[in-house]
Structures are given as C-alpha cells and as structure tokens.
User: Fold these one by one.
Assistant:
Number 1:
Amino acid sequence: MSKTLIRGARILGGEPQDVLIDGGTIAAVGTGLEAGDATVVEADGKILLPGLVDLHTHLREPGREDSETVLTGTRAAAVGGYTAVHAMANTFPVADTAGVVEQVWRLGKEHGYCDVQPVGAVTVGLEGKQLAELGAMADSAAGVRVFSDDGKCVDDAVIMRRALEYVKAFDGVVAQHAQEPRLTEGAQMNEGTVSGELGLTGWPAVAEESIIARDVLLAAHVGSRVHICHLSTAGSVEIVRWAKSKGWDVTAEVTPHHLLLTDELVRSYNPVYKVNPPLRTEADVMALREALADGTIDCVATDHAPHPHEDKDCEWAAAAMGMVGLETALAVVQHTMVETGLLDWAGVADRMSFRPAVIGRLAGGAPGGARGSHGRPVSAGEPANLTLVDPAYRGVVNPAGFASRSRNTPYEGIELPGQVIATFLRGKATVMDGKLT
Amino acid sequence: MKRHLISAADLTRDDAILVLDTAEEMARVADRPIKKLPTLRGRTVVNLFFEDSTRTRISFEAAAKRLSADVINFSAKGSSVSKGESLKDTALTLEAMGADAVVIRHHTSGAPHRLANSGWINGSVVNAGDGTHEHPTQALLDAFTMRRHLSGTGRDLAGRRITVVGDILHSRVARSNVLLLNTLGAEVTLVAPPTLLPIGVENWPCEISYDLNAVLAKSDAVMMLRVQRERMNAAFFPTEREYARRYGLDGTRMACLPEHAIVMHPGPMNRGMEITAEVADSPRCTAVEQVKNGVSIRMAVLYLLLGGAAPAVTGPAVTHARTEENQ
C-alpha cells in the first residue's frame, strides 16, 4: 500500500503537525515524523480538515446526463474537498427503488473520486401520495439512511408523519424540502420589496416556516428525527432554535449561496440567481450565518444543482432553478464564516464534515462498508479521508475551469478566498496541487 | 436618454420632460393632412409580441410608420423555451435582419431586460409591457394626458395628486406610473383591497389607501385599472359585485371629485366592474384621448432612442440625412 506524509499541516487550524497516511488509514499524527518511502506533501502551514461531507447534491444521473453525471459530479466534489456526497433522488427515473439507488451508489464506487451515498425518495415518483419502498432502499447495497422528495415538499401531513415514523426502523431520517405548495404557486423569487418592484411572483418566507413548524411538531409527536433541507429564512432559524431547545431531534442545513447572496441580485433578471428556495434578504443572510455559528443550523450543504447552459440563457421565468456549488462551497464558507470571525477551522470541520456525517449516519460505518466512514477525527487509526486547504489563496471564480459539467455558478468573476490543495479518499489522492489526479 | 427604455425608472426628470415635450411636437404632426415625418427613414423597428395586445401593437406600428421607419411585426405568442424558439434565438434572428429597435411585449416580467442586457442584440429595446413588471410608454402617455389637463408643456406634475385604483399587484401600468409620476413630482395614492397590493408596497414612493371614498376629494386625476374577473377565483376578492361596490367608480363617486379632476383608464375597460358606463362615457373620462396620445408618445420615444439629436419636427428631412451620413 502507498504511503503519504503530509508535513506541517495545521489540523483543524491547530499547530503544525505531520500526518502519515498508510494505505487507507491515518497511521500516525505527530511532529518530526519520518517520511521513509512515503510520498511527501509539504503542507507548509495549510489547514487539514476531515474530508467534507455534503448532505445535498444533485448528480443528475440517471436521466439528465446533459447537466451532470456521477463521474463529473464526483470529480467536482473532489475538487471542492468532499469525500462523500448524498445524491438527491429527483433523477429520471426517480431514486425510489433499491435498483436506482444501487446503480447510483455503484457508479460512485467505480469512479472512485468521492463516496456517493444515494438519498432515497420518500414517496413514489416524488408524487407525495404513496410511500416508496424505504426499507428496500435501506437494506440495499447502497444502505440508504437519508430520504427526501427534495425539489418537492412532502406536504401531506399524514404522509410526512408516516414517513417520519417508518424510517425509525432503520435509523433513517426524512430530509424535508420545506415549501408549502399553495403559497408558492408560480413563485419566482423571495416575496418582499424586490419582488413587488420587479413584478415577479413571490415565494414567501412563511411557506417555508409553516412547513418547518409543522414538521418539528410532527417529529416530536412521533419521536422521530427530521432534517430540514436548505433552510433560508430568519424565521426558520427561530423555529429550529425553539425545537432544539425542547430537546427534539431536529437538524438543519444551509447552502453556501444563502450565506452570501440576497434577492437584490434578482434586479438583474439574470437567471443565474434563480434558485429554490430563493435568495432572501440581508437580514436573513445574517440570521443564517449566526445560526450556523451557534450550531442552530448543523451543517452546510451545497444543494449543488447543475443545469445546462440553455436552461439559464433565457428569460427569468423560463429558466431552471438552481446553482452549482460543490467547487465553491468551502471558499464561500471561508469568506462568510471564517473571515468574519464567526467560525474557526474546527468549526468548519464540524459544520462541513463531522455533523453532516452524523446526520447521514456515515460517521460510524466501517471504512469499507456501504456507507464508508466519514466525518471522523484526524487522528491515528482513523480512515484517511482528508482535505488540505490553503486559506491564503485568493482567486476569481472562473466557471470555465470547473470539473462539473455545468457552469451555472452565481460567483463568476467574484474573488473568493481559499483553495483545496489536496483531497484524500481512503488515502488515495483524488486531488493534488489543486488538480484532479 | 439611455439606449433602452425598460423601466420608467430609466428616465430622469429631464428625460421624461424631453419625451413629453417631443410628444407634443409629434402630436402636431397628427393634425397635418399628411401625418408623416421622414425622420426614421431606412431604420427598422420590430414589434416583437409574445402576448396578444392589438392596441399596443398598432399604437407602436402607427408611431413607427409616421416616422417613416420600416416596421416588422413579429407575433410569437405562446413561444417559449418549452414550446418553441427561445427568446435568445428570436433575438438573434431579429439582429440578423438588422433591427434598429425592438419593441417587446412579453408575458413574463424581466424579458425585455434580458433582451437588452444579454448581448444578443445591438439595437434599442423598448418595453411594451412585461408580465406584471412595467409598461413605461403607458406611464408616459398617461403623464402626457395629465399634463395637458393639469399643468402644461415644458412642466412637470409637481404637487398634482394622482390616485391609482385597482389590481396594483398584477399591474405593470401601476408600477410604471408610480415611478414616473414620482419622478415628475406628483403625489400618488394607490387604492386597492389589501389582497391586490404587493408585499413591500409600503416602500414605494406613494401613499396607500383601502378606502376609495376617502381619497376622491383630494384627487386631480383618478386612474382606474382593469381588474380581471378571474382574480376572484384565486380569492383576491369575493365577487365582482363586491369589488365594484367597494372599488368601482360610478357616477356618485365621480361627483365627489374636484371639478377639474379627470378620470383615466389604460383600457381595455371592464364596464360595470371597475368603471360604470356613465363614467366611461362622461366627458371627464380621458380613455380615448389616452389612446390618441399613445401614438405621439411612442413616436417621441422611438425618435429619441433612434433619431438622436436632430430636431424631430422643425428641421427638414435633409438635416437628418446629413446626420446619418456623418455616423
């Protein structure tokens, strides 16, 4: 087995240390480790994090290979410092059977850039009417633990209740896309001052908050855990904070774009800013950052949503919703959370690796098992899923250089800090010197 | 003036007054036996209509033709990415045909903005109404009509009290009017049931009222907006009768207006809904005059966007021809 010595890395931002990787495992952590026959990576004070874990990725395969495939998506994930991603279920066909989730899982394994953990649909065809065979997906080779109709809300209260109860049998979690459908018919952007001026149909915060309020109450009632996808409003933060104060098993994620961008950008009518849930206000952005810092929001999830060029190169109303995010997530988090003093690097490791791995039940798995072993401490004996970051780097985002098949980033031409120098998946470098291996 | 007219906010006070004064000159042409100027000879204006609007289209068509422009009518109703050619491909087609100006009506908000700012075409873009966003030439012709009745050529509308009544939420006319009237110094009051006012309207440069009766006596002009009957199906108001009773303008309410006040309507009217026949047919109602003024305003806009600095009416055609040679 190959050996790698990462010399002088600041683990989670601490004092420089050496990390020796032997095969798929961290063999030793300390100062002055002997390189021997190992390949040496001079970290030179760069930050070493556990491999990042994304709870919310759209890999588009099967069905929309024109926007992304498991291969291109996992390459983008590796470039972004990720060693595990959760592939959302809204593919064609929908990932609502053991067959589809196993296919996606196997593709990830074959390509070897990043572990792919499929998310199973909660209901057949994402229709919200009949539960999908959740147990079959849980028992499949893919070992599904996260279930979501993401893209659509499980809006029927009874279906949601049953799903929350049912997945307890295999320690699953329902990840809710909180969007009350009637309040958001034809919605194009955040409902507020800007939507009123632009004449675009509003997506009110209450459409998210009312579903979250209902679902945390449901989860408490049936004693289940619930995860809230892409939480986007200050009001949602308050509800989750309240639910957690009750001791209920509620977790939540926020996307990088909701930590940085606001609905003022929609004034350009440039569909690159069209996303669901929509970009909100400055006050929401600040509340989300604060909630991520104090732990009310558990983790950052990209909601990486690739779309082909023609689906964005059109008028606003005709454009698809979503942004790519895997390759810029860490940079946006450094910009919005680290450089503002809200999180240190240990906090980044917690919100982008440890906690999402726990929510997805990846943190306890055997290294070779279906769900891998991610979000583990950087210490001897642990699996070598690692990300080396240069926080001093400054660069302008250039989508032409993306590993993703799609280019629909809202950050084109913007300077963001930080660069992933190397990513290790079970000891194998998927990225070295900032480039795919 | 900017190169495009997408929003009434694109116009400074001086721009707006220039358009209105130019329209006054254009209006005089309409009184001549030959209603035609050579000003835009050899220029091509495309009317690109993704939504049916015979009134607005023929108004722009008449305006362009009176300026001697070549006019191409491109009706692309129902066209969209899912159903047919994309806006981009349509734009590239028009560009290839050498359109100097594209007058666009589109069923979605922001489409003219995209057309003007995406690098697809080089010509000027005039917004002839986009979704529930804006309709700036309508606001200009409304201001033109108000100015004729309430102030005069060369002047703004400072201190004039304008009341706009109806479906503000879905009205591009209301949005453009609020912006332009504010630029011209008028005091605007919007009157509607709360369901038909957008969230955030309190930040607009105008007053809000739910009570039509309370504002009539303080209005120099009342603009009644068309209210679509389908709105009640989405519970914006209970019934047509209730809407007419609370927000419709009838003879009794019209009598509460100051003597000099005018009643305006952008058309088409829903008689019996937002306006009774008695009011619509009264001499105080300027609806027909507005249509007439629309041609003058659109002539002024096309002239100013395409013609540049040459005098519009007073100078002979030769002057403009020389200008073209110099370009």
Number 2:
Amino acid sequence: MKKLVMITSVVLTLTLVAGCTNKSAVRYGDANAVETTDISFGSTDLQKVAGEMTDSLLLSPVVGTLTANTRPIMFVESIKNKTSEHIDTESITDSISTKLLRSGKFRFVDMGRVEAARKQLDFQQNSGMVDQNKAMQFGKQVGAQYMLYGNLASIVKTNKDQSDVYYKFTLRLMDLESGLVEWADETEIRKTKGKEFVSW
Amino acid sequence: MLNILFKTSSYLLLTIVLSSCASTSFSDLFSNYNQQMSAVKKAQQQGDFQQALSVIPERSEGNGSFTLSILEKARLEYLLGNYSVSQQDFEFVYRRVQEADQAAKVQLSRGVEKAASVLSNDNAIRYEIPYYEQSMLNSYQALNYLNQQDFTGALVEIRRANLVQNNALKANQKELTESQNEMAKQGVTSESLSSKYPSMNNVIGKVKNGFQNAYTFYLSGVLYEANGEPNSAYIYFKKALEIYPHNITLQKDVWRLANALGMDNDIPMLKKRFSSDIIQINHRSNKEKKGKLVIIVENGIIPNKEEVSIHLPIWSSSSRNYKFYNLALPRYQNKVRQYRGLSMNYQGKQYQSEEIVRLQSLAAKQLQDQMPGIVARQVVRLIAKEEIRQQMSRKGGDLGNIFANLYNIASEKADTRSWSTLPDSIHILSTNFEPGEHEVKLTVNGNLRTINFRVNEDRQTLIKLTAIGSYTNYQSFNL
C-alpha cells in the first residue's frame, strides 16, 4: 500500500512538472537550415534532391553541347512517387524547373497551365471585348523538344532499436523526337533514427 | 469505522488518480467496450450510419481508447461517403501508430498505465492497434484516395499496408514466446489455460497468423497491375493465393500473370495445382479487346469480443500449492456466419464471388496469440487485489472486506476492445468484360441489385460493394 502511495505521488509530480514546461513561441528560422523534426521526407531532402540534380544536369557535357547555341525548350512530366509517404513531388519538379530557368540555359512550357491559357486565348478571340489586331492567336505556341521525368523510390526498415529510410531519386532527360535519353542521374539519401531509451 | 472509510476512500481515490494519469475514463473501467458499442453497431446494421456516428461514446484526446474511437468514426464516415473526412481521421490514427512505433523503449506513461491496470483492469492500458486492423486502415485509406481520384495516394497506402505486414512477420514469433514465458512466470501453464478457455478453433479455421490479410494483398495486386507493374501484382496475387489456395479468382489471376510474365519456374508447379478449367484459358490467343471487371464485396459487421469468466488453478510459490482464481477474459464466439456473397449472370455464364478474408478469424487468431500475456497480467492483478482485500479485512473487519470485494468484482472486466465497425467477411469476383457502359443485375446476399459501370478497353474497373443486412451500396473506379 505504501509503495502505491509513493508511486502515485511520483506520478502526480511528474504530471505537474510536464504540464508546466510546455510553452510555445513563434520564431522565424533559416529556410535552408537542416531540418530533422522526424524521419519522413522533409524540406532538407527536397532541397538536397533538387540542388544536386540541377547541378548535375547543368554541368553534364551532353547538356553543354545541347545548350551551346540555343536554349532548348523543355517540359517537366512528373516525378512518380513510389515511396510509402504522401510526398508532393510537384514541389520537387517546381524547384528543379525554377533553378534550370534561372540558369538561363533552358526554356520551359508549363503543361499544368494549358487549360488556363486556352481559356485566356478563347476570351481574346471570341469574347468580342479584345481588339482582334492585338489578340493572341491560337496555334502559335512552340512545342517542347525535351522531356524531364523521374522517380522517387524508398526503402523503409524498422527494428526495435532504430528506423532507417533510404530514398533514391532518379531524373532523366529525353529527346522527344528521337526518344533518346540524353541525360540521367540519381541521388540518394539515407536517414536513420535511433530510438530514445526513456521518455514520458 | 473512520479508519475503514479512510482506507476504502484512499483506495478508490488512488485508482481514480492513477486512471486519470493514464487517461482512462472511469466508465471504461467498469463497463465493457462491446456494451458501449452496441448502439453504434445496431444503427450500422440498419444502414443508418449518421445515427451510428452520433452514438459513438465521446472520448478525450488523452483517453487510452481515443485512437480506437477515431477508427470507428473513420470507418462510418467512409460508409457515409465522406471520403476526405474519413481520410483525415485514418491519417491521424496512422500517425499515432507511427509515433508509438518510434517511441522510446521505456515509456514512463506506459508504466503508469500498467500500474493503474493492476488496480483495475486491462482497459486502463492504451489500446494498441493490432496488425490486421492496421492493414485494414491502410486498405480503406487506399479506397479513400481512389474516391478522391488520387491514384498515386492510393498506391502509397498500399505500400504502407504491406510494410505493416512485413513488420508484423518479423515481430510475431518473438512476441509470442515472450508472452508465453511471462505467463509461465505467473504460475499458469499453457495446458491448464487451453483446457479451461473456450475453444475458438471454428472461427480461426485455417488462419496461420493474425496479420496476413489476403484482401490487402489482392487489392495491392489489382492496383499494381493498373499502375503497369504486373510483376509486383503477380507477387501479391501469389501471397494472397498462399492464404486462400482454392480461390478461383486468385488462381485465374496468378495463372494469367504467370503466363504473361513468362514465369517458367512457376508454370509447371501451378499446372499441377490448378484445375484444367483454369489452365485451359489461353490468354495469348485472346486477341479480342476486353476490359477487366473486379468486384470487392464487404459482407456484414465483425462480431464483438465477449467476456468469459474461467476458473483457473494457479501455482503459488509462497504457499507451495495451487489456488483457484476467477479470471475475466475476452473471447470470440466459436461460430462463423455464412455469407452467400454476390452472384451475377453475364453473357449466359453464372459468376459467384468467393471469400478473400474473414476478419473475425484474424481477430480471433490475434487474440489467441495475445492470450498468455493477458492471463499473466490478470494473475498479477488478482493477486494484488487479493492482497489488498486481506489487508482491508484485517484492518477494517467485515465492512472492509465487503468494500474490497465489491470493488474487486466491479472492476474485474475483460478488455473487449477491438475495431468493431469493420466488415465480417470480404469476397472478390473478377472477369473479363466487353468495353462500354454496362447495367448489370446481381444478387448480393439474397438482395437483387442493379449496378452501372463503365469498362474501358484493356483497363480494369474496380467495384467496391458494401452489404450490411439489407443495406447495399457501391462505388466504381476506372483504374
């Protein structure tokens, strides 16, 4: 009985202490800082993947010859999510295409906004509100020459001591006319989380 | 007299305090989960899911059964067609399970729950979602994503479901031996337990473990094939076939893919196992363009765990002899309900659905594996309660004895918690269909229904049908 009373008092104290230490505050942080909140796919992984891939693409000799005298037109297909997490792969392709555009070596067409563009052209052509001499014409868009696409796959293992996750990101550049894959690269990430020994 | 009252009240207070730390509501300690859920299941049986949702017992976030009540809610939201709400609820539970998996090896809060359970019962311990419920969670989540036209999301959930089953396979044997050792330490032998505990053999049937869910494997296969990964699909169909070796739909799928993928090692073996009807289907010569129809039928509602009281001899090392104790244990009734499933007539041929999972069997097998651990905790508890009764009777006389006895009887409750809005049995049926719009009459558990769907050339159409009592509903997906 005495033991039980002891346990209860210890438990009560612990609960009170735990209740008092929880204070929240809002801060601004560095967007490029390493984020290790948990083991799942995070901002650091996204930045690493997008950064390494664009560097590799821009530095590759093949791409050097492709972009020697022209700025080839590309379109980004999609990154297939083959992991066991719900990852927004569009934000990876967004980062990559933004970086490539910024390099000034490539131009892009955006397949995600075709419908919006069609609506605008339709408005200019058929609404009767736009001066026909200044209206944009249908059928003048330029087709993409290259397609950028890839996969994000993962292997997850867990045991009683730790969890381990391995990501492999593959990106490829295909010449749409010949069907040849002109460039490909992959980047890997491994994250391991050891379990704590004691916690509340 | 004052002394007795003081003792009794301090005893009760202790339980309340401990149980509030362990965040279990008082009612959970004195009434069974199956009783609390009976109103929900009654409404669900009548197909009134809105009513069922409204009578789920309220639980606070810190309550040990909180995740379980979210599971029940998510399933009912799914049945109501609120797929995004259901998806968020399932995601919440999934994240809780992940957190628990990655939590520290020693969690002080669990110690407190265990301490509270020694004075009351197993309901004070946080509900751990068993593997078969986790795989069902991810399977429903996949359907939720499909209902929201997110095929990639559905595939993510399928991968999660299979990850759960892989982890379960690794953990299972170890947990089994550990809990048996635990029980032996408390002076109970497996033989004496199995002689007293009511048999569940009819329910368990041929199930070898409580986590390998053939339905999840089959759904994985269907989705992988739709995603253009026939090799992965083949592996999952084969896994499902291992569990249900006589399922004709599975046999057809395995045979078809084995030939398409040129699995030369497997084909001779499959030839020996399958009947000539299946082997004679020659897929290569089938040049006419067709689509494939896959129907999944959920039948009924899974039965509850029940409380059973057994009288068990336990070896006491202090008095060096056997003492008899009454144990309140959970169990499943040893009978299975038969479902006729679905029958359909198409182009003059009769098709009949077949079972792909009996969730009650998985649940019962799971319970059987957990039983040694449950008994071990129960014995510790009985001995502690008996100790307190003796002390109170010594110090408080008859009154103390009565108080202690009353409390002990009232708090002696089996842990009957389980996800109880799940279906009882799931059937599958698949066949080739002409492309185009279809209106097909079929019989589901004796009720006539007409369903409309579209079949695309060389693609699959998945129909998910729910049949509870006289209620039926379906969704169709063009994969």
Number 3:
Amino acid sequence: MIKLNAKWASYPYIVWMILFTVLPLLLIIYFAFTDRTGAFTFDNIEQAAAYLPTLVKSIYLAAIATVICLVFAYPFAYAMSRLSFSRQKMMTMLVMLPMWMNFLLRTYAWQALLEDNGVINSLLTSIGLSPLKLINTSGAVVLGMVYNYIPYMILPLYSVMTKIDKSLVEAAGDLGAGFFATFRRVVLPLSMPGIISGTTMVFVPAVSTFVISGMLGGAENYLIGDLIEAQFLGNSYDLNCGSATSLLLMVVVLITMAIFNRLDSEDAEEALL
Amino acid sequence: MTKKGKTLSGIYIALMMLFLYLPIFVLIVFSFNSTKGYSWNGFSLQWYKDLFSNELILSSLVNTLIVAAAASVVSTILGTGAALGVFSMKNKAAKNAIKNVTYLPMLSPEIVMGISLMLLFSFAHLSGGFASLIIAHVSFCVPTVFLSVLPKLRQINKNMYEAALDLGCNPQRAFFKVIVPEIMPGIITGFLMAFTYSLDDFVVSYFTAGNVQTLSITIYSMVKKRVSPEINALSTIMFVLVLLVLLVVNVRSIKAERAREKKMMRL
C-alpha cells in the first residue's frame, strides 16, 4: 500500500455527508415525533399507522413487480451471458439505452399505449373489437414498475452470470446432473448475489414510487409514495405526519434489505458496484 | 448449447427487446402525427415546431444543464478528496463509518432523500432555488464519484510511486506524476455518472427545487395533462441524442480496445 498523508482531503466530504445526508434523515425522525409546536408526541405515528393498508398495497404491488422482473430477467440474463463477446456488449448497451431516457417519458409512453383512447385501444377498435379498460388499474401500475426497473434486475444478474465458470456447468453435466439439477445445484447458487442485488434494486424504487402510480394507476391505486407526496407538496400538507409516514416506509425498506443482506452480504455489495 | 436452445433463446431475447423498445417507438411514430391523439392522420413536423417555440422547455433545459454542471463539478472535487482521504486513513472503524454513510443515499428510496432535504431546507429557512437544488444533487451524486475513484487508488502499483520517489520526486510531484494519472479514469467515470444522475433526476429535484424549473419538472407538469404531442417530439429527440452518445462511447471503447490489443501484440 502506498502511504499517503491526505486524511484531511476527506474532511469536506465527511462534513457534507453529515450535514446533507445524516442530518436530514435525523430530521425525519425529529419531525415524526413532534407536533407543530415542537412538543414530543406519538400522534403522527398513530396517524401514519392508519395508512397501513396503503403501505400493504404498495408492498404487494412492488413485490409482484419484483417477482415478474426476476422471472423474466433471469432467463434473459442467462441467454445474454451465452452470446459472443461483441454481441454481449451490444446487448448490454441495448438494455441500458431505455434507462438513459428520462423515466417520466418512459412512463408517459405506457400512458400513451394504455389510455382509453390510446394506441392499443385504437388498434382494437379499428379491427372491430371493443376497447379494454387498461389504464388506472393495478395491472398498469405493475406493468409500469416492471418496465422501468427490469434493467436493474437484468444487469446485476448478467454480471454474475458472466463470471460463472462454464466448466462447472459442464462438470455437473458430466457427473450426471440433468438440466434442472444443474440449474438448482450450480447455476442458481452461483447467481444468488445477482438475484439479491437485483431484487433490492427493483423493490426499493418500486415500493416508494409516486410517479408510476400517479400516471398509470389513477385514484384507486394510491400508494405510500403518493401519500407522502401529498403530505409534503400536495393537498394534505402536514410535515409531521408526512415524516412519520416516511419513517414507516424507511423501516419497511430497511427490513427488506436486512433480510436480503443476511442471505449474502459481501457478494451483493460487489454486484451492486 | 443445442441448436434448438439457441433459436429459443434468440426468440426470447427478441421478445424482451420488443417489450423494452415498443413504447419508445410508438412515441417516435406519433411524434410525426399531424393530429393529437393516437390514430394516424398523416405526417407532420408540427409538434417539433411547437416544442422549439416553447420557452418554458428551453429555459428548463438551460436550468438542468447549469445544475448538472455545478453538481457534478462539486461532487467530483468532494468525492475525489474523500477517496484520497479514506485511502490514507489507517483507522478501520472510521473507514467503515464513512463507507456506510456513503451507501445511505444509494440505498434509501429517492422520495425519502427528497423529503429529508426538503425538511432540512425548510428548517434552515433556505427556500428552494438553485442553491438548494445543487446541494441536493451533490448529496446523491458524490457517493458515485467516491466509489469510482477509491478502487482505482487500490489498484495503483506501489512500486511506481516508490520509483518516482527514488528517482528524486518529492511526494507532491510523485503524487501528480503517478497517482493522479492512475486515478484519472475513475475521476472521469465518476464525473460522467454524476452528470447523468443529475440530468436524469426527477424525484429529489421535485421536492427541493422550489420555483426553479428543471427539464424533469417541466416534463412532469406536461405529462400530468395526458396527451401532449410535444412530449412525443421531446422523447424522440432525447432518444436519438442518447443513442448517438452511447454509440460514440461504444465505438470509441471498442477502437481503444483494438488499439491496445495491437500494442500488446507488438510487445
């Protein structure tokens, strides 16, 4: 190791992170447990607990979206990792390209497709079928989540799969393992770090979204993100109660990540980078 | 893989690509439609004309670029300094504490980041504006710079630095002659990632921008109104721009790789 004497160079960063990352998160806790006058109270938490059904619905939709992402991304990442090197590079670029487009525009694209007078329904009516109710359904919200976040599942899965030693798969075959046995005993355990980081990278933004549910879900699919947005910038303005709701969301996210990180901590961190 | 397996996986890849690109292509096609709505009524460039005479969009584009430039420069300076500092620390506990704090903004939901900063700014009586927006953007950009520079420092060959010292460089000169060139790729990657994160951000900006309109915020207010064909035109332009940038970067990296291979061959 080179010996540098530059500890001081990190001090501005440390100050910055304390001021603008740690302190704001502590402020959420402070606001969650105080009322408007600054006195300690549990009222906000109690009020936030009344929104539990909204939270449960968010977790439910985000979980479905995460599972769908995993089921579709897994074989895709596997197929990608078996392509020739130059094709792999091209596919990685193709998967990342939509991600680089503003995600509001991507969600708007689905709005355009699913709307009552949208592309799909115009096509249906033009061939003489009756239009379908597509937008403002839970299905549309899940679809929006899957579409926006599936690259976050594909890329970590793909990056662990390229590292799987092909000779291990061949050895399993030589030793008499069939397709499913090879998958279950060799490929799946080796790709676990990718599954874990992909799952957290899809679930966390999905459970806390307010844009996707707002644009594709309508009034019936009001999620925890929409609630927090309304409490901070919308018509149910209440910073204290909003902080309590956010705290609730944070706890859910932390629990999810703790569960997944217990499964495999160091490898997941590697795949995330 | 068997031949049948290859065809099957080819079909699967094609279907997934269709899913990823169909919505974007629909937007592109309808950006050239002559009427509002989603039935084809003939070719026109009207929505592009409307888009470019829309002053709100143009001024938001300028705001977005100002914020992204400022936030990525500040993040690069802070993040590179942090990587150098942490690299020279010997105290394991302090190192780990800093790393854990670094993961915080990357792992917490964006909406929580956004509202926590909003609370801070309202607590400090700093109303939304360029300052708060740039502070917020630096806060979520700086960890990526830190994490892309740190591994480069670890990879430096210790002998090179010592050789520079043996050959008469003082530590400062050795630092600029050996360490800076070695970590440069990490700094550049970090800077570019910070810049794109900042450009692309909506959620954090939404809660901290106050009255400053960035492109994402303007798009959000347009998108809420449903069918607005200028958005289709904007999507098309952005898609083509991103496509061009990625193509240039990819072609360059492939060329660089080939050049490196040739060099290796000669050696």
